[in-house]
Amino acid sequence: MFGLFGSRKSAERRIAEKTPIAAASYAVVDTELTGLDDKKDSIVSVGAVRIDRGCIHLGNSFYRLVSPRTELSAESVVIHEIMPCEVANEPGIDTVLGDFLDFCGDAVIVGHFVAIDIGFLNRELKRTNRPAISNPVLDTFSIYEWLRKRGKTGNCPSTLFSGYQLYELVSYFGIAVNGAHNALMDAYITAQLLQRFFPLLVEAGAKDVGDLITIGTPFRGGDRFGLLGEFGNF
After folding, report:
1. Backbone dihedral region of 105: left (phi > 0), alpha (psi from -120 to 50 degrees) or beta?
2. Staple partner for 67: which of 90, 100, 220, 232, CB 3.0–4.6 Å?
3. Burial class (CB in 10 A: 0-12, 13-18, 19+), 126
4. What gap in Å lies between CA 194 and CA 205, rounded to an integer?
5. Given this model, what pLDDT does residue 232 score?
6. Low-confidence residues of the chain, pLDDT below 50?
7. What's the rounded Cα separation, in Å, for the pair 215 and 138?
């Protein structure tokens, strides 16, 4: 079931699945939201960075504030610190989506608990009569779990801190967090986390992008939902 993420076959025709993991192109993304209810909340910012041939390109990043379609709650402002006055005159998500998709191009899309981000993005694409994202989508949490169960993450416990929150996980891997919490910063530290995973994946026997898609696709690969897939015997 690819479901939430569009047509797997159409995406795979664009991705050379035999490309070595560290040689592929990735768009690492994050969104900030007015809340987590996909029926009443909406996107307030989108951030993304590119990884090409193993290198993060800080000069090739994407960040947009978005005038949300729903009201910013006090709870969400505490998390992302985006005030209503900051986004009142920003473009709506309808305008931002085209630029975001152009930035991602044919790259593999990556995020931490990325199902949330892709779910909101696809809802807006559907609302504006555009097709869902068809790029392969990888969850760094799913990749982490797959590696952890194969003994590739050191002494990291199976219930890490308060549930695999991004900042706690990157701290375990020695990634410094500097600057304000926002979509671009979170995309950047997630990209660093993915970089840390590349050699561990190779050690665990994953050789190419096709392997990584099976391991890290939310609701399909990895072990998070008990779906060991084709690589359960590694």
Report:
1. left
2. 90
3. exposed
4. 16
5. 31
6. 1-13, 160-162, 220-234
7. 8
Q: How long a stretch of residues is the chain?
A: 234
Say what the pLDDT of residue 167 is.
83
* pLDDT for position 228: 31
Nearest Cα neighbor of 29 from 111, 137, 97, 133 is: 111
Distance of alpha carbon 19 from the chain centroid: 20
Say if domain 20-222 classifies as CATH 3.30.420.40: no
User: Taking Cα atoms as reference points, which of 151, 115, 144, 143 lies closest to residue 1?
Assistant: 115
What are the start-end ranges of the H helices in 38-113?
74-80, 84-87, 93-104
Place of tokens 């910012």: 45
- Both tokens of 225, joined, read 């939902």
Q: Would you state the structure tokens that stand for residue 133, as one six-digit string?
A: 């994202």
| Residue 205: both structure tokens together | 């026997």
pLDDT given at position 165: 76
- What pLDDT is recorded for position 158? 55
Per domain, the residue ranges of the chain are 20-222
pLDDT at residue 225, rounded to an integer:
32
What would the two tokens of residue 185 be? 């910063």
Contacts of 120 (CB under 8 A, 6+ apart): 31, 33, 38, 41, 42, 43
